[in-house]
Write a structure and sequence with these properties.
Keywords: Cytoplasm, Endoplasmic reticulum, Nucleus, Ribonucleoprotein, RNA-binding, Signal recognition particle. By secondary structure, the protein is mostly helical. It is 65% helix and 1% strand. Among the domains are: 220 residues, Signal recognition particle, SRP68 subunit, RNA-binding domain (Hyaluronidase domain-like, Orthogonal Bundle); 105 residues, no CATH class. Helix 7 runs antiparallel to helix 8.
């Protein structure tokens, strides 16, 4: 056989081609899930950007140490992350957390209300976040799979849009970046698990208000207050947006407040000279329109309570401005009278809105009072809680009527208002008495509950007589329903009390018949005594008896004792004399004489 010819060694170009043919390892990162989980678990659930920034710093320290990617011992030596450096997915995590740390630092400064110097520092942090997010997107496009690259691109676009949105220089470019982010998450939301689709939907909802704000700014259309309030939501991404909304709303209110010269309340007009007072009152009135609008029935109760808090804050600011003006008014009687009247009117509106808020709380508590516990273990309302709420309402109405009736000369509208709220106070007293009777009924006190139900019924009837010609039909209907409830509950309590009274002799005779000379107490079954039997150690389902696990303190038990031995032979024994065996003491000469 002929020997095969020797093959020539491969050239350098062939070696490089063979190396290029090796499969490239692609890393996979769910960027949106990683970001959302880190933010929600480390402070941003409550808007704590400082805590999240510290977490990012600690996370970067752990990543550097685990990858042995340190920056020198004594002197800092910068080490860049490039395409050749990324041999592990944790290098991509380093770049991601660098961007998150810079972004959270900027948001921390923004939420603290920065001045001019701090704003420059804040914009520098946003630029740093954009730099790291861009590097993250570039590395993911080279080392990550297609989905990771797409998510990183959306993340970088959001950071760029945030910087441009904050700078207010290129709104068109900011809107283009936000639209790019929205388009990417719309595509990603069509695939994957349900959790991933929900995350993409949430991200789209966070970006939508910013796109709307930018489009209105570019279109030159006037930003209305109700449109801005519709855009305002909750969450980490909206903290950047809130300052813009508040700035535009303040500017709009300042323009509208210039034409506002007086405040009207119950037929009286009070002039307003302070610009801050006008802006605060105008803000409160706009919030009241949103609260009493046509679509208020669809607004959840939690959001209504939030609007009430904003109304109270605005009126408190207005009242503090009025009182500051009153303190600096001097001895000018006309100005002091006007400011005193304005202060009284603002305080009356505060009391009026407080009553409305407490009525909302009562309606929420009533809806939970008739409910049973559902699968979510929702807490039901106790009658004592409703009694406390009606106590607050009675106190609020009393304070409001006292404040309005404190004037010397009252007009017709003020007299009508006082009469209306005196009747409402009577209705609140009737409902308080009704729920107080409910609390006594739940405690098994039938006599007290029956008396209170009858008293509530009499108060309700007297209120209905006074409200015979009232235009408030809703209050009349509520009082009629309350009167029927009082009548029916009083009959139920009367019947239940009679039944319990009739059953007393029977229970007494049954108890006497079971008396014995043995143990008077019922023998309790403890768990440790019946381990070999499958019996429950719990009490009855309708009683509050504790679980019987073991007896404590443990009972006394009889134990055998040592026998008593009486040694009767000891007295009859004669012992031998052993004095001769005892050692005798030697005495000296002197001791012989003196013993």
């Amino acid at each position: 056989m002929s020997k095969p010819a020797d093959q020539p060694p491969p050239s350098d170009m062939e070696v490089d081609a063979a190396a290029d043919e090796k499969p490239l390892v692609r890393f996979s990162i769910n960027v949106l899930e990683l970001m959302r989980e880190a933010q929600m678990q480390h402070g941003l659930r409550h808007g704590d950007y400082t805590r999240y920034r510290r977490y990012c710093t600690a996370r970067l320290r752990r990543l550097y140490k685990s990858l042995k990617f340190l920056h020198g011992r004594g002197k800092y030596t910068r080490r860049n992350i490039t395409e050749s450096t990324v041999t592990d997915v944790r290098f991509l995590h380093i770049v991601f957390y660098m961007a998150e740390r810079a972004w959270s630092h900027a948001m921390e400064k923004k939420t603290a209300g920065p001045n001019a110097q701090q704003r420059i520092y804040m914009l520098g942090r946003f630029r740093k976040a954009v730099k790291w997010a861009t590097l993250f997107s570039h590395l993911c496009s080279l080392k990550g799979d297609s989905r990771t690259s797409l998510e990183a691109e959306a993340y970088a676009s959001y950071m760029k849009g945030t910087l441009l949105f904050e700078q207010e220089k290129n709104i068109e470019a900011a809107m283009a970046n936000f639209k790019n982010t929205r388009a990417v998450y719309e595509e990603l939301g069509k695939y994957g698990s349900i959790e991933n689709q929900l995350l993409c939907r949430q991200r789209i909802e966070e970006v939508e208000p910013m796109i709307g704000f930018c489009s209105r700014k570019l279109g030159g259309s006037a930003l209305q207050a109700h449109e801005l309030l519709d855009l305002e939501k909750e969450g980490p991404a909206y903290d950047l947006f809130k300052a813009k909304i508040e700035a535009v709303l303040s500017e709009t209110r300042s323009q509208q407040a210039a034409s506002m010269t007086e405040f009207c309340w119950l037929g009286r007009r009070f002039p307003i000279s302070n610009a801050k007072t006008r802006v605060s009152i105008l803000k409160a009135q706009q919030l009241e329109k949103d609260l009493n609008g046509a679509n208020t029935e669809s607004v959840p109760a939690d959001k209504k309570l939030g609007i009430f808090d904003k109304i109270f804050s605005a009126y408190h600011d207005a009242r503090s401005c009025v009182r500051n003006d009153l303190a600096s008014a001097g001895n000018a009687e006309n100005i002091r009278d006007e400011l005193n009247g304005l202060d009284k009117a603002v305080s009356a509106v505060l009391g009026f809105r407080t009553i409305e808020r407490n009525q909302l709380l009562v309606s929420i508590a009533k809806s939970k009072f008739t409910k049973h516990r559902d699968e979510k273990n929702e807490k039901i309302t106790k009658p004592e809680e409703l009694v406390r709420l009606f106590d607050l309402l009675i106190q609020n109405t009393t304070d409001l009527t006292d404040l309005i009736s404190s004037g010397r000369d009252k007009n017709e509208e003020e007299n009508t208002f006082i009469q209306e709220y005196e009747l409402k106070c009577l209705a609140f007293r009737a409902e308080r008495c009704f729920y107080l009777a409910k609390s006594y009924s739940s405690a098994g006190k039938r006599t007290e509950a029956y008396a209170l139900f009858c008293h509530a019924h009499s108060i309700t009837d007297s209120a209905l007589q006074q409200l015979a010609n009232s235009p408030d039909k809703a209050l009349v209907q509520d009082l009629k329903a309350l009167s029927d409830s009082c009548r029916s509950n009083s009959c139920i309590e009367h019947a239940t009390g009679i039944m319990e009274e009739e059953s007393v002799p029977e229970r007494l005779s049954k108890g006497v018949s079971t008396l014995s000379l043995g143990e008077g107490k019922r023998k309790e079954a403890f768990l440790l005594d019946m381990l070999e039997r499958y019996e429950s150690a719990l009490g009855e389902s309708n009683t509050k008896t504790p679980c019987c696990i073991a007896r404590f303190p443990p009972p006394c038990q009889t134990v055998p004792c040592n026998p008593i031995v009486l040694d009767m032979a000891y007295n009859t024994i004669e012992f031998p004399n052993i004095e001769n065996r005892m050692k005798k003491e030697k005495k000296g000469l002197l001791s012989r004489f003196w013993g």
